[in-house]
Amino acid sequence: MNDWYADAGRDLPWRRPEATPWGVFLSEVMAQQTPLSRVEPAWREWMQRWPTPAALAAAAPGEAVRAWGRLGYPRRALRLHEAATVMVERHQGEVPSSHADLLALPGVGAYTAAAVACFAFAEPEVVVDTNVRRVLARAVTGNALPHLTLTRAESDLARECLPHDRDAANTWNVAVMELGALVCVARGPRCEQCPIADLCAWNVAGRPAYDGPARKGQSWHGTDRQVRGELLQRLRSAPGPVGLTALEDAGPEEAQVLRCLDSLVADGLVEPLSRQRFRLPA
């Protein structure tokens, strides 16, 4: 697996030796539920504008939301700003290296804390994302797809598979994720390109079909997520505050637009200047 990654792994800027812990941290937050093809240009823009936690912390939260663009789940931009502020206040402007300190940062969960500890500080944490779960489900347990949500058994399996050697373990973490992203994909896996095809329990068994609970795709058109995204896009594009009349047609129904606008205010993504004027948070 590690030999395959050395040849086939993508050359991404946050994987290079010169990448800073802040660059790694930023990439991990941006890449949550977002394709890397969309992450890389945004990551480069953010790193140029805010190359350190202190640089981002000194900016207005609304600037982080504005720069987030169309990456999706914009609350991540606010959490990044909050995390940068905590790094300045508690960690001398640096990304903390310990798993516990990382986990205490705003918006950081178990996966992100483990990934940053591993990829930024070479701590051999167990890193488990959707790609890792899918590769191990197929290769070890012979299932076409993993459980709908992460289970204790999956976490234990990932820990058991982690090499004992520190360097090999850190490479293994990113190699398994890369295999899941490029070869062992959810639909149409490229088993002929897989370096462990002859060891994969699912492949050896003839690739039996998935027989677990139904997996529903996420809808988008007409949903609150779409309306929230349109509202934020209009606010991002405006040079100053935006009047309610310029926002009311952001969705199919005015009631839905107002509900979504209220939710953005509650999430801290939009700041009301009055009942009729709104802006990104200052």
Structural classification: mainly alpha
Strand order of the largest sheet: 1-3-2
> What radius of gyration results from the CA coordinates?
21 Å
User: At the third CATH level, what is the topology name of the largest domain?
Assistant: Endonuclease III, domain 1
Helix percent reads 40-55%
Strand content: under 5%
Quick overview of this protein structure:
The chain is 52% helix and 2% strand.
Attribute tags:
single chain, 282 residues, mainly alpha, Endonuclease Iii, domain 2, Arc Repressor Mutant, subunit A, 3 domains, 3 strands, globular
List the helices and strands and how they pair.
Blueprint: H1 2-8, H2 21-30, H3 36-49, H4 53-57, H5 61-68, H6 75-90, H7 99-103, H8 110-121, H9 130-141, H10 152-161, H11 166-182, H12 201-204, H13 224-237, E1 242-243, H14 254-266, E2 271-272, E3 277-279
Antiparallel strand pairs: 1-3, 2-3
Helix pairs in contact: 1-11, 2-3, 2-8, 5-6, 9-11, 13-14
Description:
This protein is mainly α. The chain has three domains: 120 residues, Hypothetical protein, domain 2 (Endonuclease III, domain 1, Orthogonal Bundle), CATH 1.10.340; 75 residues, Helix-hairpin-Helix base-excision DNA repair enzymes (C-terminal) (Endonuclease Iii, domain 2), CATH 1.10.1670; 56 residues, Arc Repressor Mutant, subunit A. The chain is 52% helix and 2% strand. The chain has 14 helices and three strands. It has a three-stranded antiparallel β-sheet. Strand 2 and strand 3 form a beta hairpin. Helix 13 packs across helix 14. It is globular. 34% of the residues are buried. The mean pLDDT is 94.
